[in-house]
Amino acid sequence: MAGAFWCVVEDDRKGAPKKVMAEVLGEATRLGGGPVEAVWLADKVTDEGIRQLGAWGATKVWLFEGEAYAPYRAEVWTPVVAELAGKEQPRAILAPVTSRLREFVARLAARLGAGLSADSVAFAMEGDRLVATRPVYAGKLLSRVAWAKTPWIATLRPNVFKPADAQADRTAAVERVSATAPPATLKLVERREEVSTGLPELTEAEIVVSGGRGMKGPENYVILEDMGRVIGAAVGASRAAVDAGWRPHRFQIGQTGRTISPKLYLGFGVSGAIQHLAGMRTSKVIVAVNKDPEAPIFKIADFGIVADLFEVVPALAAEFKKLLEK
Amino acid sequence: MKIVVCVKQVPDTATQVKIASDPKTIDTAGITWIVSPYDEFAVEEALRIKEKRGQGEVIAVSLGPDRVKETLRSALAMGCDRAIHLNDPAWADADTLATARALAAVIKQEQPALVLCGRQAIDDDMGAVAAQVAEILGWPCASWIMEETVDADAKSIRVGRQVEGGLEIFDSPLPCVLSAQKGLNEPRYPTLKGIMGAKKKEIKDVKAADLGLGAGGSQLGITALEALPPRPPGRIIPGTVEEAAKELVRALREDAKAI
To answer: Does position A72 have pLDDT exceeding 60, yes or no?
Structure first.
């Protein structure tokens, strides 16, 4: 019997899986290469969270529950999951790209002596093997990759894969793993929360509004935040705006910032330098507003308006408001 | 305090890349090569640690063909003390794991107190090597570092790691492996004196056999590179700002179903 497709769970630190897991479990199910199982490490999990994983398609949840697993430390997670993998011989190990799972999965791959395809945007079963597609060279090319042996280890770019529909009649068996977690050498001192904008996280948002050099200064981002609140969008920035000190680096979209793949991207006063495109080119629908009709972003935009963003943003926000109040 | 910095040579972001005839690699003719930007943050931070402590040694390590010497020269010009070039055709198709094994082997020989890498190289964007080196060495690791402070007796390091919604501050014993995120520092430009001085610094060539490693060992292979599928042509919406805004919202709702 073919080994399972493991999906490592990203959670909200409060016992519930993040909704990106619907994408990972949905893709694992669609591939049909083996039973779909979740692997969850946390200090606490909820029954509702386990139900959710089952409804998204996990047939089993391998549960590592204990104080040792929070906060996440690769040196603690790696040996226990590697040990289980040695016993269970999963065929694939998949995880969403998040700050901790990208590191964890890399470390796990080294432990298992297995190949890793990071930030994958497509998969296919070709006969008896998995192949993955991933963007390379600032998203200018796609690379097709395959593994020398199992387990096939990969991370998945969020917002790219079709999420599983939650089906309440699907349930997951729970298998608690009693592992001896090694002592952690990394000690958490504190967590510094960023001042919340009240808007979604950039990498998780379905809609992203982005402001570039055309924003003219830090004080003007408030108009994008206002629009963000109307349509539930995260607000990002180009490197030019970040390097000018208008926005903190965590809001930067692009090669030296965050990679996003929202359903809808709206760029205002963004020229569309290659390094910016590298971070948003897989967005499904791209809108560009720029005074300069020659701005490179219009080459990849689905819709463009050539006009002053300071006139367009209020008009657009008003139209969105009208639409959503209907 | 001895620090190893891992650097990678990559095509300049603005360079046009063409697929070679194989078609698993890029055509390297006419490419401008640079030090991967995140690795420059790593080099800069290593130099700052050394300068702050008033002593120490910073060793730049890179894996790749002959042209990689240029990248190591740049690191030396910034201020690294010496360099090691993992230069062997055996590593031509190295994936992240084969690369990490080679780096870990040389790090084991050097026994530094700290290893710094960039968070990812901007060519293949895997972002895996730092964590994999740490695993092979059995050291702790922390990725996407925004700040660090080495304690006075160089036994531990306090690091701030960027996570969703904030920073997590950890104390780690040394030795450990860190990967640098943008925002950690502002890399210096090499001075003329630095560039001249770099010519006299040592770049040691190391072969796989010197590290007791054989050829191969890659677990992930590229089967083909492909051009991006073309995006359907876009549409510039004409009219006054009010008309265009109205039409855009209609199109997003009815045609694109994006809102």
So the answer is: yes
